[in-house]
Automatic annotation (TrEMBL):
Protein known as: Membrane protein insertase YidC
Membrane topology according to the record: Multi-pass membrane protein
InterPro entries referenced in this protein's UniProt entry, alphabetically: Membr_insert_YidC, Membr_insert_YidC_N, YidC/ALB3/OXA1/COX18, YidC/Oxa/ALB_C, YidC_ALB_C, YidC_periplasmic_sf
Keywords, ordered alphabetically: Cell membrane, Chaperone, Membrane, Protein transport, Transmembrane, Transmembrane helix, Transport
Family: Belongs to the OXA1/ALB3/YidC family. Type 1 subfamily.
Annotated source species: Chitinophaga agri
Gene name tied to this protein: yidC
Length: 617
């Protein structure tokens, strides 16, 4: 590997390591910040009203209830009843208390322990509107008892269930209607406020929908889950953004929003405004509990524009499902953008994933069931894609190896004049017909692929709980040995794919040792240090990713041997270089400008030396 190639790889390596550290960096909240988050969470979390204070002689006192609950006194008490809507992939259990989902199960998925995967399964998960009671207080509909709850089967195979929150006036009520289609992960949630313009304050122009969500631990690695626990949103102009629960305690928007999504590592719950409707704003508070079973909690207040019509309706669609690219893309509202396919300075690699990696991956998975084999074929495809650039790289390295003795002579001759050495070296390259940057092009071509894979494999739900060789889950790290202690900058387990990746990277560096600048310690040892630096980082990443890198290294070693053994003839290259030297040199515009700049720099240096000598005299 020539000097320029090593410099290129070193710079790319620094960028790549920086990108990895940026994505894996954790922000540990201080005690003061945690107290602030807890305080905000308590303020946002709806609190049920204690109805025991309104019981007289063992029976509800209607006068006391009317005094406290106003027109909604009839909904203050009741017996909890549940009803289920279910299709092939989704099972939602509804409760008449709050007229809301009390449990949501994804039927085709299991958690890391093999138990049913539940996106909602506690009293913490609530969907509630705030309605006025007497004494200027507000009630949360999640604490009140709705009527209804009978399942209706529609002609298109969908199932619907409606809940009604009655008032003292039969013509005034709040109604929730949920419709679950025959297939799919989305349920329609229609809010109807009938005649409530006379109940709500005259100044009220919005309805506040409180959505509290608690994300339980679904995967083996809690640290990784929390890094991927995020809130995403998109406004009506199509702008998408997000924040991570660990880094942001609260956030508020006053602009119109199309959807808000609470994303876990492989699943999400999203509230979508349907039929050209929009949320008038949102106020979100987040909390990361110290519990080992809860990944994160969000308290989301969505503002619903209220036009005070007698028959007011607001259509919402709730998505409970996997972060599957094709499924989310089918909504055609940019929901697939919650999947991290490339961000930051490497945001452009998401197009590599969208246009190359994902289509090829989906094509292969269409007729191959073993995902380890799919990764192998995907790796071979990518290496074939960049094969022409790889060949040119080896040819360039061979040319630089032929010129190395002459470069060493120039270096010894102009040891004290680096400027002149640079000019003479450029002349040598030009006369020999060698591009000194020829070895960097394949590295530049491979970098987007490397980063794209770094984003794709850990985010691919298709790999979740899929085994290959000793790896039990290709979306998580493979461990051949769990350590009873933590090794700093490494972890508490040993990933074999990571060790193999590191070993093959060192083999590549060893094979190219003769082409590096041996006089420069940085250039000499960087190819060996860089893989060791990555060892601790990749030890806890998805085994599919480390397997891909290991396999790519093995192919590189094999290609290097085959090309150098059968395709690159050093004698012919040497003869071609000597033949090129005999031809009259023609300067390109770029080379002419470069030489002109070097001459000007030399003239300035001479002038400065003359000025210094005159001062000494």
């Amino acid at each position: 590997m020539d000097r320029n190639s090593v410099i290129g790889f070193a710079l790319l390596g620094v960028l790549f390591v920086g990108y990895i550290f940026f994505n894996n960096k954790q922000q540990v909240a201080a005690k003061k910040e945690k107290a602030r988050q807890d305080s905000l969470a308590n303020l946002n979390k709806p609190k049920p009203v204690d109805t025991a204070a309104y019981v007289t002689g063992g029976a509800p006192d209607s006068s006391k209830l009317a005094s406290a609950y106003g027109t909604f006194a009839g909904a203050a008490n009741g017996a909890i009843q549940t009803t289920v809507l279910e299709n092939e992939v989704l099972k939602i259990t509804f409760s008449n208390q709050g007229g809301q989902p009390s449990q949501v199960q994804l039927k085709k998925f299991k958690d890391f322990e093999g138990k049913p995967l539940l996106l909602a399964n506690s009293s913490f998960n609530r969907i509630s509107l705030q309605v006025p009671a007497n004494n200027n207080t507000l009630l949360n509909t999640a604490d009140l008892f709705f009527t209804g709850g009978t399942v209706q089967k529609l002609t298109d195979g969908s199932q619907a269930i409606s809940y009604r929150l009655p008032t003292s006036n039969p013509e005034q009520y709040l109604e929730y209607v949920y419709t679950l289609k025959q297939d799919g992960y989305a349920v329609d949630f229609d809010i109807h406020a009938i005649g409530l313009e006379n109940v709500l304050p005259a100044s009220q122009k919005t309805l506040s929908l409180q959505w509290d969500s608690e994300n339980d631990k679904q995967e083996q690695d809690m640290q990784n889950e929390r890094q991927n626990n995020q809130v995403h949103y998109r406004d009506t102009d199509g702008k998408h953004d997000y924040f991570t629960l660990q880094r942001t305690g609260s956030q508020k928007w006053d602009n119109k929003l199309q959807w808000v999504s609470v994303k876990q590592q492989f699943f999400n719950t999203t509230f979508i405004a349907r039929k050209d409707a929009f949320f008038g704003g949102a106020d979100i508070t987040t909390k990361v509990p110290e519990s080992g079973n809860i990944v994160g909690q969000t308290f989301t207040k969505l503002e619903i524009p209220y036009n005070r019509a007698h028959d007011f309706s607001f259509p919402i669609e709730i998505y409970y499902g996997p972060n599957h690219y094709k499924t989310l893309k089918s909504f055609d509202i940019g929901l697939e953008s919650i999947i991290p396919l490339g961000s930051g300075i490497f945001a452009f690699v998401k197009y590599v994933n969208k246009w190359i990696i994902i289509p090829v991956f989906n094509f292969l998975s269409g007729f191959i069931g073993n995902y380890g084999l799919i990764i192998i074929l995907l790796t071979v495809f990518i290496r074939l894609l960049i094969a022409p650039f790889t060949y040119q790289s080896y040819v360039s390295q061979a040319k630089m190896k032929v010129l190395k003795p002459e470069i060493d002579e120039l270096k010894a001759k102009y040891a004290d004049d680096q400027q002149t050495f640079g000019m003479e070296q450029m002349k040598l390259f030009k006369s020999a017909g060698v591009n000194p940057l020829g070895g960097c092009l394949p590295a530049l071509m491979q970098l987007p692929i490397l980063v794209a894979m770094y984003s794709f494999f850990p985010s691919s739900i298709e790999l979740r709980q899929e085994s290959f060789l000793w790896a039990k889950d290709l979306s998580a790290y493979d461990s051949i040995l769990n350590l009873p202690f933590e090794i700093p900058f490494y972890g508490n387990h040993v990933s074999l794919f990571t060790l193999l990746m590191t070993a093959t990277s060192l083999m590549l560096a060893f094979n190219n040792r003769g082409m590096a600048d041996q006089s420069n310690p940085v250039m000499k040892y960087m190819p060996y240090v860089f893989p060791i630096m990555l060892l601790g980082i990749f030890n806890r990443l998805a085994s599919a990713l480390t397997f891909y890198y290991f396999l790519s290294n093995v192919i590189s070693i094999g290609l290097q041997w085959v090309i150098q053994k059968f395709f690159v003839n050093h004698d012919k290259i040497h003869a071609q270089i000597q033949e090129n030297k005999k031809k009259p040199a023609s300067k390109s515009k770029w080379q002419g400008k470069l030489e002109e700049m070097q001459k000007k720099q030399q003239e300035m240096q001479k002038r400065q030396q003359d000025i210094q000598q005159r001062k000494k005299q």
